[in-house]
Fold this sequence. Notes:
Blueprint: E1 5-10, H1 18-34, E2 38-43, H2 46-55, E3 61-65, H3 82-87, E4 92-95, H4 98-102, H5 107-119, E5 123-128, H6 138-151, E6 163-166, H7 180-198, E7 206-210, H8 218-224, E8 229-232, H9 239-252
Parallel strand pairs: 1-2, 1-8, 2-3, 3-4, 4-5, 5-6, 6-7, 7-8
The protein binds 1,3-dihydroxyacetonephosphate.
Amino acid sequence: xxxxxxxxxxxxxxxxxxxxxxxxxxxxxxxxxxxxxxxxxxxxxxxxxxxxxxxxxxxxxxxxxxxxxxxxxxxxxxxxxxxxxxxxxxxxxxxxxxxxxxxxxxxxxxxxxxxxxxxxxxxxxxxxxxxxxxxxxxxxxxxxxxxxxxxxxxxxxxxxxxxxxxxxxxxxxxxxxxxxxxxxxxxxxxxxxxxxxxxxxxxxxxxxxxxxxxxxxxxxxxxxxxxxxxxxxxxxxxxxxxxxxxxxxxxxx
Length: 253
Ligand code: 13P
């Protein structure tokens, strides 16, 4: 696979204190510094984003916000704005993570957030994925709708700047990841859908896989899943596990 594998460490709502977040960051930084084939993006809780991102002078790690409001300010208690995310040196924005969608985020919200992220020069990571799989393949239609909405307000020239993270909801937080073969099939479908909707630039969209990624399955997924990287939850908040995961990619993918 050409280029470095993108590994997004989605810390979700962990850890409980800034002191612990700094410790986890320091451990992650050391892991990232040693891994020449991996590029690490950390998505910490919004409160910890500023101290970590503005305090970091290296080049190996980039930062993401887990969510943001598309506007640049306004009466939206409890929200953070995409413009503010950009201002604290984050370069990525997760959009439409399954846990945000479960809390009420709609396809139309993701449309606005993707467009706003691009406007402010951030790379949107549009998260898509079905809740269940049945024999009749309905999940393809579900993912297609999510992609259609998420890319709807993207300028055709900017299509290749959006990253798609495929995270089947049934694999998030579970014991087992999806098989690389199934991911390969889904990656083809995702690219085909974007090309159909927006033309040839869709071929260059990077696709990540997320859901129960660990040191056992990470390298295989990168080798055979037709993905450019991984979105990692639980294994990213345990430095030992994260080190083993990155090491496995370094040696086996
Ligand atoms: P887990 O890796 O804990 O299954 O979480 C996946 C996820 O939601 C990453 O965004």
